[in-house]
Write a structure and sequence with these properties.
alpha+beta, 4 strands, globular, two-stranded parallel ribbon, two-stranded antiparallel sheet
């Protein structure tokens, strides 16, 4: 996502694992809070928000978890009970700070960038809630 990389570079390419491809698996659902090249293929959900780097839902996924995707109703569901999700959330710690993010542009960016679903713009560049812009 915008904060995790930072800057949302195309880092979300997730190919079918070779072990599965050798067994004939042609497609499987891949999830990412990143961007991906337009040359990728298959069942892919991108720009998941809020991103894992700030504690979004992907930060709580563990190996072996089942995830349900219902495209028609635009639903993505982590099939883990609420008590386990609460335990994982309580144990979650943010990733270490990016090198050089203690000052300057990188600090400004990490403090102000919005999530992908909000345009990955700076918060201070958004219009006021009433939509009016004053000169």
């Amino acid at each position: 996502g915008p904060k995790g990389a930072p800057g949302m570079p195309e880092s979300g390419y997730i190919p079918i694992p070779k072990k599965l491809a050798r067994q004939g698996v042609k497609d499987m659902l891949r999830l990412s809070d990143a961007r991906m090249s337009g040359t990728a293929f298959g069942s892919i959900v991108l720009h998941v928000t809020p991103e894992a780097a700030i504690g979004g839902p992907l930060a709580l996924v563990q190996d072996g978890d089942m995830i349900r995707l219902d495209v028609a109703s635009r639903q993505l569901e982590l099939l883990v009970d609420d008590a386990e999700l609460a335990r994982r959330q309580a144990a979650w710690t943010p990733p270490p700070a990016h090198a050089g993010s203690d000052r300057g542009y990188k600090k400004l960016y990490l403090e102000q960038v919005l999530q992908a679903d909000e345009g990955a713009d700076f918060a201070f560049m958004q219009p006021p809630p009433d939509g009016r812009v004053t000169p």
